[in-house]
Every structure is written in structure tokens, then in C-alpha cells.
Amino acid sequence: RSDVNDVRVVMTAERKAPTLIAIGSGKGGVGKSTLTANLAIALARQGIRTGLVDADVYGPSQQVIFDAEDAKPDARDNRMIPVETKFGVRMLSMGQLVAPGRAIAWRGPMVGNALAQMIDAHWDAEDVILIDLPPGTGDVQLTMVQKYKPAGAILVSTPQDLALIDAARAGQFFDAAAVPVIGLVENMAGYACPHCGEVSDPFGKGGVEAAAQRLELPFLGRIPLDLAIRQGSDAGEPPAAGDSAQAEPFLSIAGKLAA
Ligand code: ADP
């Protein structure tokens, strides 16, 4: 087992290539893409040159969150050049490799190829690259851990039991591949009232932190279910880029990685 400190060392040590950190979840819809985008922006705000690869083949969404839907990556020497975004994070997304709105029905080797192109791109300026994985433990994840061996993985879950069981499975997957799990993040942890900001807990609270304890993994933080987070993501205005209260949990998690 590793902890945040191990990855921190990797990030600040002399390095030739950027540190890869995979963001995974057991199932979809738990906020993995939202966390990846906002964490990347929060890291960049703390002076860490951060890139993002959206490897979620089944539902790439980063180009929407980053307001970069029309951006198409250029290439140099047969390698893609990541697209600049207005949030200080360069990115490449599966969504930029296909026509907008087209469903992606690729076979395994094509997916592996697209992943390779995005990771072997011109990332020379970045300290760290966050990789938004598809949910679960399928082909893309397997290629990712076997071929590129990320320095660590962060797992996102909602507080409910089912999501937690899936997250624990995803944890075992990274364990088996000898990729250290940096820690767990609880998303949609309580509901932030859009009027007064008070957080209540319709789904219970602390489930992910308790699971982290059980699994002997670091708990990195919790992000409330907040209408402003959803609206910001859809509008291409990720909250971590601003100074609202919604930026806070993302900056705090980034602080733990970047200290
Ligand atoms: P995943 O990548 O796990 O499939 P997404 O990040 O796409 O999940 O999130 C699913 C939906 O939930 C999106 O519409 C997103 O804006 C919304 N969402 C994610 N996290 C939160 C949150 N903390 N509060 C409100 N909405 C959220």
C-alpha cells in the first residue's frame, strides 16, 4: 500500500516524463469526470503544470467541461499536440478524435490505439497528467495499467453501498496491477442547499471515509452534491477555476497532492 506522500515525491522529483495519475470509479455517473477536471484545474492553480487525458471512451465529457468542444488537436512529428484550454490545463479527449455527437463504437484495438496516441502526445511541458478512465475495470483500464503504469490511482465513489462495493473492486484491480491507490474521494456527499449553502445528508455521510479506513487507504476529501457544480460543468465553467465555495473541496484535495 502506498499513500499520498509517495506520489508527492514522484511529482517533485527529477523526472523525464510527466507523472501519470489515473482517476477511476467502479461505476459511471459518480462524478469521476467532474473530479478529474476540477482537480486538474486546482493543481494548475497551485503551480503544478497539469495535463488531462479523457480516456472515457463511452462518454467523453471533458471537452464540454473545459469549453473546448470545437478544439481539434494538431500534430507534430506524427504525435498529437494537446489542446490549450482557458483554465491553464492542456488536454486531449476521445471526444476530440471523433465527430461531435457521434457514438463511439470502437473495438478493443482501436481504443488501445487512441489511448496510446493521447498518452504518447507532446506532453513535454507537464509535471503531471490526470487520466479520466472509463468506469469499471475493462479494456482501457487494462491497457492503461499494463502499458503505461500510472504512478497512482485515485478512486471516486458516492456514499451509497453499491457504489462503494464497485469502488472496492476497482481498488483491487489497481492493487493487482501494482498501481498504488493514492486515496478515495467521496462525491455527492450530502446536498448543498442552493439558497443557504447548508449541507444535509440524504444519502448518509462518511461512507467512503469509513471504507477508506477499512481498506487502509487514505481519504482525500468529500465534495457535496451541489447544483452549482453541475451547472458549472455543463456551462464550461468548472467551479475549481473560480473563487466560490464550490472550488474549496477541489483545492483542498489538490493541496494534499501538491504540498
Ligand atoms: P462520471 O464521470 O463518474 O460518469 P460525471 O462527472 O460525468 O460522472 O458526473 C455525472 C453528472 O453528475 C454530471 O452531470 C455532473 O455535472 C454531475 N455531478 C458530478 N458531481 C457533482 C456534484 N458534486 N454536485 C452536483 N452535480 C455533480
From TrEMBL:
Stretches that traverse the bilayer: none
Q: Where is the signal peptide?
A: none
> In terms of domain of life, where is this protein from?
Bacteria
GO BP terms in the entry: iron-sulfur cluster assembly
> Does Hydrolase appear among the keywords?
yes
Keywords, A to Z, come to: ATP-binding, Hydrolase, Iron, Iron-sulfur, Metal-binding, Nucleotide-binding
Q: Is-annotated flag, keyword Iron?
A: yes
Entry GO MF terms: 4 iron, 4 sulfur cluster binding; ATP binding; ATP hydrolysis activity; ATP-dependent FeS chaperone activity; metal ion binding
Family, as annotated = Belongs to the Mrp/NBP35 ATP-binding proteins family.
* Oligomeric and partner information: Homodimer.
Q: What does this protein do?
A: Binds and transfers iron-sulfur (Fe-S) clusters to target apoproteins. Can hydrolyze ATP.
Official protein name in the record: Iron-sulfur cluster carrier protein
Q: Which organism is it from?
A: Qipengyuania gaetbuli
